[in-house]
Amino acid sequence: SQEVTIGNKYLNVSFDSNGFLSTITIDGVTNRLRQTFVYYEGALGNNEEFRNRSSGAYIFRPNGTEKTVTENVQLKVVKGGTVQEVHQVFSEWISQVVRVYADESHVEFEWMVGPIPVEDGVGKEIVSRFYTAAQSSGVFWTDANGREMMRRVRNHRDTWNVDLEEKISGNYYPVTAKIALEDENLRLAVLNDRAQGGSSLEDGSLELMVHRRLLHDDAFGVEEALNEKAFGQGLVARGKHWVVFGAKKPTSPTPEARERFLQNRVLLPNWLFFSDVGEVKYEDWQ
Amino acid sequence: EPHLNMLREAMGVMQHHDAITGTEKQHVANDYARMLNRAVRACGANTKAALNQIHPTTDIPQYTFAFESCHLLNVSKCELTETKDSFTVTLYNPLAHAGHEYVRLPVTGGRYIVRDYRNVEVSSQIVPIPQSVLNLSYRFSNATSELVFLANELPPLGFKSYFVTRAIDSLDDFLHEAPAPASPPAADQTLAKQQETAQWH
Fold it and tell me: Which residues pair with residue A98 across a beta bridge?
């Protein structure tokens, strides 16, 4: 029921009494950083014309705005000299570990989603959403295949006057490695471990779609709904997001450079190999 | 070469936009996963051979190490680290600059000593695996915790090994060592059967 804080010598993150991440403190300055999961219900179209297609493998088309998963998150806190973690349970099918390693200046989110319940006959598309106080004025950035960052503006296209009929999916873009936003004071970057859809639907907030389960084919391909199963249940997906948050200041290395190095490390990780050494003593091995 | 060709062929098939975006039928997606899994496992032989060439123990023939991979670390499962009392972890750094990584190894509890090649003990921490991961019905793992330690000064395009030993803290630990898993009675036969099926999948 009380606030919980984990951290290291660079940063601290706090969780409010409902169990949600709420603030991040760096160099003694505390900023709002909230994270939660929401979901969109998949639209069910008659597939007769383009504008009336169901949400499916080729299309993201929500039916209305997001739904919240819970108002209360259960927490379990683990603190130690190497890593501090908060194990969050949002629901039976959404959990997450928020961790801060002793020598890292980013926050790691290991999310796990599924089996997505569809007893109500409604497909669902699960999103992890981050909120900050940054006045980003509708501007955000998404990467192009892990390289150049493309400038995106909500409800806008650079080369024509767009009139978005789909206010949510019309603002979604492919995010292969990173999505970011900033204002003159703050910058938030979220690195992902696999290609996901992402957007910034309100100033200061970023979201990435982590898992989907849909029940109707979208008539664009193989006449099969995107409803992946494993062992007879809906597929469980587990993955990571890495959050780099900080003051927007002309330091060297710049925040973007730090994100770049982190991106290389997490997307081109070390290969791990294991060997059973049996009766070999350490001294012999050394 | 035949192992590498298997991976080349799999990656050739995966150029199709279906393989990248997941717009194929479910059974095709499963076949893509099967193809990739089979090819990556086959190339385990190549990485083993390469590491045994550059790893200094090759001049002591009985020490050619196996260099196994654990492909299910993302769901905190690794047969070798869960069952062995002493093992080595070798990290190969594919980047052109020195790196570091917090290593997380699924274990069945207890205390471990992690040493690098200079006999320097590396501080480590045992962290419980989240209950929601333990509840995953098809994980088939005895691990309840993860051993976490910092592997640093990983040389560019190079490797570094750590020697991990389960510490027998006290006679009490020794006397109450986790009993070897008994042969599964009939009731667990289904579990063993599922495990075998799961391995195949």
Answer: A86, A109
Taking alpha carbons only, the member of A12, A26, A20 closest to residue A38 is A20
SS3 B133: helix
| φ, ψ for residue B161, nearest 5 deg | -115, 150
User: Distance of CA A116 to CAs A41, A53, A94, Å?
Assistant: 12, 22, 9
| Spatial distance between the Cα atoms of A43 and A51, rounded to a whole number of angstroms | 11
What whole-number distance in Å separates Cα of residue B119 and Cα of residue A285? 10
- CA B164 – CA B107 distance, rounded (Å): 11
CA distances from B80 to A15, A57, A230 (A): 36, 38, 25
Q: Cβ of A236 and B66 within 8 Å?
A: no
**Bridge partners (DSSP) listed for residue A100:** A84
Q: What is the pLDDT of residues A49-106, one digit of tens each?
A: 777 788 988 889 999 999 999 999 999 999 999 999 999 999 999 999 999 999 999 9
Contacts of B86 in chain A (CB under 8 A): 276-278, 280
Which residues in chain B are closer than 8 Å to A125, comparing Cβ atoms? Answer: none
Answer whether A89 sits within 8 Å of B132, measured CB to CB.
Answer: yes
Place of tokens 């209305």: A64
* Residue A241, φ and ψ in degrees, nearest 5: -125, 140
Residue to mutate among A110, A209, A270, with most B CBs inside 10 A, is A270
Centroid of chain to Cα A13: 17
Given CB atoms, is B24 within the 8 Å cutoff of chain A? yes
Question: B residues 121-140 near A, CB within 8 Å?
Answer: 123-125, 127-128, 130-133, 136-138
Residue B80 near chain A (CB below 8 Å)? yes
Instruction: Give chain A positions within 8 Å (CB) of B146.
Output: none
Rounded CA-CA distance A190/A140 in Å is: 11
Cross-chain CB nearest to B95 (options A224, A268, A273) = A268
Instruction: Give the separation between CA B139 and CA B154, rounded to whole angstroms.
Output: 31
Longest dimension (CA), chain A: 73
The C-alpha angle B185, B106, B114, rounded to 5 degrees, equals 125
The answer, for A160 touching chain B at a CB cutoff of 8 Å, is no
User: Does residue B41 belong to the interface with chain A, where contact is any CB pair within 8 Å?
Assistant: no
Closest of A180, A216, A228 to residue A200, by C-alpha: A180
ipTM beyond cut 0.90: yes
User: Would the CB atoms of B89 and A272 count as touching at under 8 Å?
Assistant: yes
Summarised one tens digit per residue, pLDDT across range A138-166 is 999 999 999 999 999 999 999 999 999 99
Contact B69 A273 (CB under 8 A): yes
Rounding to the nearest 10 degrees, give the CA dihedral for residues B74, B77, B79, B84.
100
